[in-house]
Design brief:
Layout (H helix, E strand, L loop, with lengths): L2 E4 L4 E4 L11 H13 L3 E12 L2 E12 L3 E8 L4 E7 L2 E6 H5 L14 H5 L5 E12 L2 E10 L1 H12 L3 H9 L1 E9 L5 E11 L10 E11 L11
Helix pairs in contact: 4-5
């Protein structure tokens, strides 16, 4: 016997069964996650970066803290045991490295470069081919779990306009691929984990067999909007 199903979507003739379901709008989730995370009053982050270049693999571990409006601390350690630490308060920055300590306080050539959160999250605006994955919990928080690819043409256009990069650099960006996997809190849209997988060219096109490097960044965010004290050294 024919039956009619009346739902909030529309009236369907079902033989024998039709369901009407709707998943999250992942593009809308991404936009909300970008805004909520970028506007957090404070957070801590632990990250691991693994990169392979010219046949060698290296690993970097980082720890970061942020307290609005302008206090930031980061410590970066590499596999050799060397490390550097930067504390930024307003327009003042304090940097120290393991090299300085080992040499008795002498000047070191080591650098400690940390991207601000707004730049880390910028590629999210260019995500395409979004795919939902099974929900997961991160540190006890129920999270939407999904992934997407960065539209490199769109990102190159934004980067070229904002930072006035050379054409050579922009061409390398165009040949690069970036995949991003996200875990976003269902209730607050804060990013709890972000994995970025990058594949980039290491040789000029048309010069024979191309060589490629890879980089994987795993960032775990926590302690959002908790009291965090960051003081000068």
């Amino acid at each position: 016997m024919r039956k009619y199903l009346i739902t909030g979507c529309i009236v369907f003739l079902i033989m024998p069964l039709v369901t009407c379901s709707k998943g999250p709008n992942l593009r809308e989730v991404t936009t909300k996650a970008h805004i909520a995370t970028g506007e957090a009053r404070s957070y801590r982050m632990k990250g691991t970066t693994t990169y392979t270049s010219e046949g060698e693999t290296h690993e970097i571990v980082s720890e970061e803290e942020f307290a609005a409006p302008d206090r930031f601390r980061a410590k970066i350690s590499i596999e050799t045991g060397q490390w550097c630490e930067v504390i930024k308060i307003g327009d003042k920055s304090y940097v120290r490295t393991s090299d300085e300590l080992e040499s008795g306080g002498g000047k070191s050539d080591a650098t400690c470069v940390v991207l601000p959160i707004v730049e880390v999250l910028e590629p999210l605006d260019s995500l395409i081919d979004l795919e939902q994955l099974p929900d997961e919990g991160i540190d006890g928080v129920d999270c939407l779990h999904y992934r997407g690819k960065v539209d490199m043409d769109s990102l190159v256009e934004k980067t070229g306009m904002a930072y006035q990069q050379t054409q050579e650099f922009l061409e390398v960006m165009r040949r690069t691929s970036i995949d991003i996997e996200l875990w976003v809190g269902k209730d607050d849209y804060l990013i709890r984990q972000m994995i970025t997988r990058i594949r980039f060219p290491e040789s000029e096109p048309g010069t024979g067999e191309e060589e490629w490097g890879t980089q994987t960044n795993i960032m775990r965010f926590y302690d959002f909007n908790k009291p965090i004290a960051i003081e000068p050294p």
